[in-house]
Amino acid sequence: MNRHEQLAGYILEHPEQIGKVVDFDAATDKLLPFNFTASNNDLSAEGIADTARFSNWVNQQLLQNHCRYGIGGYMEHRTLYARSALFDTANEEPRRLHLGMDIWAAAGTPVYAPLQGTVHSFQNNDRFGDYGPTIILQHQLDGLPLYSLYGHLSANSLQHLQVGEPIEKNQQIATFGTERENGSWPPHLHFQLMFDMQGNAGDYPGVCRFSEKEQYQDNIPDPDLILKFYSATII
């Protein structure tokens, strides 16, 4: 049994151990799926590069569709993402494959730990297009190590944290940051799971080259195993 099967089996056998990441109510909330591939004709690379325009577009979409949350992104090939030099290196394949799940909602939206664990690391990845304030938690699921990453947080989210600090399931750990503090993005949460931190602390790639998909997918399970968004109401 590989690690992905172990994780899916643990979640199936221990549903009581799985909590929430945001205050999503499947009975009343609808989810708006966002598409940031080249097939999205409403957006351009230039529009995404302009943080104010990008934010206005996201907010309009949520408002028009009467949705508190937008979702999407796991293993999505975001060919539109040329907004930051962070994703491009001269003479190399650009990084466009998105590795986590994005949850789009208002700045200040609470973020919770869906699993019991400890604080592995945290830091402010303060570059244009980066995660901004980031928290990584460490979990042990019947011997299976798992890490959860929360990016694009508010600066206040990093205050008073300590490495090794115990975290309970459903404990609020952060809030969504504003564009001014979250790496210059429309307010959202980048939620990502990893089996192995591979020597990283306070950061882990959230976007990779398409040619690297297989190696990253081996280490990064589908966040919807925890979120269960795609079994909810998608408009």
Q: Can you describe what's shown?
A:
The protein has 235 residues and is an alpha+beta fold. The protein has one domain: Glucose Permease (Domain IIA) (Distorted Sandwich), CATH 2.70.70.10. Helix content is 17%, strand content 27%. The protein has helices at residues 3-13, 45-49, 51-64, 213-219, 224-227; strands spanning 31-33, 69-72, 76-77, 95-98, 101-104, 110-112, 117-125, 132-141, 144-151, 166-167, 172-175, 188-194, 207-209. Strands 1-2-5-12-9-8-7-10 form an eight-stranded mixed sheet. The chain has a three-stranded antiparallel sheet with strand order 3-4-13, with no helix packed on it. A two-stranded antiparallel ribbon has the order 6-11. A hairpin with a 2-residue loop joins strand 8 (132-141) and strand 9 (144-151). The radius of gyration is 17 Å and the shape is globular.
Shape: globular
**Strand pairing plus helix content: what structural class?**
alpha+beta
CATH class reads Mainly Beta
Order of helices and strands: HEHHEEEEEEEEEEEEHH
Low-confidence spans: none
User: Mind telling me which CATH architecture this is?
Assistant: Distorted Sandwich
Strand order within the widest beta sheet: 1-2-5-12-9-8-7-10
Overall residue-averaged pLDDT value: 93
Count of structural domains: 1
Helical residues, percent: 10-25%
Largest sheet features: 8 strands, mixed
User: CATH topology, which one?
Assistant: Glucose Permease (Domain IIA)
Helical stretch tally:
5
